[in-house]
Amino acid sequence: MDLDLRKLRYFAAVADKLHFGRAADELHIAQPVLSRQIRALEKELGTPLLTRDSHGVALTDAGRQLLTDAGPLLASAHAVRRRVTVAAHGSRRLMVGFRAGIAVTPAVRRFAIRHPDVLVDLRRIEGDDQAAMLLDGRIDVGYVRLPIDEAGLRVTSLYTEPRVAVLPAGHRLAGKDRIAEADLAGEPVLWHADTSTQPTKRPHPDAGYRVRGVDETLEQVAAGRGISFLARSATVFYSHPEVSYVPIPDLAPDQVCLAVAESRTSPLVDDFLSAAQATSEITAECGNYEMWRLEGDAASKHG
């Protein structure tokens, strides 16, 4: 039996809202029609997906599993439609996403030697949308940073790079040539995800702000709301007069990876992945240069 993507989309809307009326409004269909479609899906799968009683709507165990699997399936279908539309217009195009601080140009140049007729578009992505943009086809290939939800993705390690501490300019440790993680013990950290994903041996207190992207991180640090950590390559492209970057060698390194949707099979994508892997050392060197500059500046101050 083939799974009906339309019914699956209806189910995902109900599961998200846990309310048939609001889901029907979002889908622009009548509520009785939505209810019939959900019952038909349950019959096709041979199991209840939702419980409905006076207390509201809840997911069964089977419903929770289907919701987990539905996201990549629906995103993949959307990506297919997007790629067909692009192909219908006769364009050969590859959309490459990249996180802040990652140099993509070496791979683009190498790829262009083999595919001079393909337009490579570049788009910066953030940690909270890197997986979604790959799954729904907004980008074909992603230079991502871990952690990432790998469901529905093929993720290949590319290289690691050290991190730096991001401190307010007036911080007691600003301007040091290097510091240890223990020097910052107990200081609140501005982070983009759960504290368990911090690159420290022990989680720091949460500063109470969820930051999205390097720009926002620097502004919040400059405002004195906490400290943070960045991959050293990000410091090549971002600076702030009220922020100090200090190397912190014993911090867990940042992991840079290549990622594509599992459903994405294309000779162009494979060739770009090969170009990215062949130029990974050049990409990593962008971060090395900045680390040498940081350490050299600090040494000159103490010399």
TrEMBL record:
InterPro entries, alphabetized: LysR_HTH_N, LysR_subst-bd, WH-like_DNA-bd_sf, WH_DNA-bd_sf
Pfam families recorded: HTH_1 (PF00126), LysR_substrate (PF03466)
Domain of life (superkingdom): Bacteria
Residues in HTH lysR-type domain copies: 3-60
Keywords: DNA-binding, Transcription, Transcription regulation
Family: Belongs to the LysR transcriptional regulatory family.
Entry protein name: LysR family transcriptional regulator
